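name: query_chain
kind: protein
chains: 1
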Amino acid sequence: MNPLNEGWSVVVPYFNEENFLAATLTSLAAQTLRPARLIFVDNASTDRSRDVADDFSRAFPEIAITFLSEPEPGKVRALKTGIGAVDTEFVALCDADTIYPPRYLERAAALFAARPRAAAVLAFGEYRGARAPARALLRLKWAASAALMPRQAHSGGFGQAFRTSVLQRAGGYSNDRWPYMVADHEIIHHVGKLGGIAYSPAHFCVTSDRRLDRRRVDWTLAERLAYHLVPHSRKDWFFYKFLASRFERRGLYNANLRVRDWEAGSA
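structure:
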């Protein structure tokens, strides 16, 4: 069993993830660089998610686990609560429905070591069940995008790791600053003011693509293209004037992620 690394914490927020959480946590326990601390943030779950987390804690008593609760709905609020409890040099923010390859944290640590001025390391996402050719093409696409636009986010919140001091200095995730969707891109813009963003084609995780209707949780193609085309010097305007007003009109708030349209009987 690999020794614990005192420099790393992992924050895992969850809302009603009893069917996925165990696999995610098992993948984190199998890391070649094992985090010294896991911080679980229950975002007002109504299923057995907390029981799953308790079972994991009993199975891995050598890992320090902090159980937190964030009653206010929304992943951004849950992340803020979790980040506030981090006291290690580095922190990985992990989604409860994502599988992390055994060398995930090891690769993130190596990227930070190679890029001392990097504020964040981002992992590319592969969808569970995708065929090998599709995965290879997707990695090639994201790697090319990152090479061409290195200061932008080319990944989601499932694959983010930060230097804790920089993340906290930037204010972390904030529902006051950005209560809308694509908070995972807004935080990279915000933290990116204090340091670079590191990528590697070999650094990835396996996430789910279970949402059926993305209209209330995603930006339009035009907005996505604008994100990539607007120069970095105008990104504050893009997020806090242009995109915020459009998302406000359409009601694209981060808490919309709680609507689980893939489950029978959900609204």
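note: The mean pLDDT is 91.
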